Amino acid sequence: MPGNNRGFNKSGGDGRKRRPPARHYDPYHGDSGTHAGERIDERYEGIIEGRNAVTEAFRAGRAIDKVYIAIGERTPALNHIAALAKETGAVVADADKRKLDSMSVTGAHQGVIAIASVKEYCTIDDIFAAAEERGEEPLIIVCDEISDHHNLGAVIRTAEAAGAHGVIIPKRRSAGITAIVGKTSAGAVEYMNVAREANITAVLKELKKRGVWVFGTVADGDTPLWQADLRGPCAVVIGSEGTGMSRLVAENCDFKISIPMFGKVSSLNASASAAIVIYEAVRQREK
Q: Distance between CA 234 and CA 212 in Å, rounded?
């Protein structure tokens, strides 16, 4: 009969609505329900969850940036994971169940989620070795608690493009070299020495002992950027997005430099500030 589409409607021949095929996310190999060219949410990249999966990741030698463990659930298995993390230098952070649930892809985190690094961290000695190998004065970027992954990725991208010898980040209250940072850096993280240190204040003291001048970036700095001498061995400190450099870090800078601002906006974000200062150093060194 014309107009009778029984058996051919979208609900199925029996009139019942069909459910779309199930979609499953595999944190190791991607989304099995994702079509070619479809973008997976970048927040899920590098996530390893579940006690066995995280333990095996450590045993396999995978670089782990951070491990979140449920508060109040320190079972022998979770204590073992925490010990493995500390042995390898990964940060261990307590997290409540709501945070873990929000991070979880599978819904079965078992009280532990690890975030993989895209590469191994280096040492400060490696940074100095890179400068010596190239016959150049060290140019080091120190990030003081930059927590935004996109900002850190942009800083690393600029540092690599400008020929800096290394980037130093703190272990806590900072983004690490995760998949998001790697992607934002456009692959630059693969070529840039990135060291992660427990105490940035102590790092600055060590750098100064090794002959490096430390330049902190602040809005009300006493040295305009164009008057700063960045030709010698120097470290440029970039403060966090919201509060800038911490007090102790600022106190350990040899110079506090400011970027001239002529518009109505009173500040730049961390990655933009870093780019301007880094390339001023490049300009001076090219003379």
A: 5
23-60 burial: b if 16+ Cβ within 10 Å, else e: eebebeeebeeeeeeeeeeeeebbbbbbbebbbebbee
Measured at the CA of 286, the angle between CA 129 and CA 130, to 5 degrees, comes to 10
Rounded Cα–Cα distance for residues 96 and 78 (Å):
14
Instruction: Of 219, 255, 222, give the one whose Cα is nearest residue 239.
Output: 219
CATH of the domain at 214: 3.40.1280.10
**Cα–Cα distance for residue pair 236/255, rounded to 1 Å:** 10
C-beta separation of 112 from 49 below 8 A? yes
128 Cβ contact list (under 8 Å, min separation 6): 138, 165, 210
User: Pairing relation of β-strands 112-116 and 64-70?
Assistant: antiparallel
pLDDT in tens, 105-155: 888 888 999 998 888 899 999 999 999 999 999 999 999 989 888 999 999
Inter-CA distances, 249 with 15, 156, 170, Å: 69, 20, 12
Domain count for the chain: 2
Write the pLDDT tens digit of every residue in 224-279.
999 999 999 999 999 987 788 999 999 999 999 999 889 888 888 899 999 999 99
Q: What pLDDT was estimated at residue 162?
A: 96
Please state, in angstroms and rounded to a whole number, the distance separating the CA atoms of residues 283 and 271: 18
Continuous H helices in the chain: 51-59, 76-88, 97-103, 124-133, 149-162, 179-184, 200-209, 247-251, 270-285
Rounded average pLDDT over 31-60: 65
Q: Are residues 243 and 143 in the same domain?
A: yes
Q: Residue 19 domain-assigned?
A: no
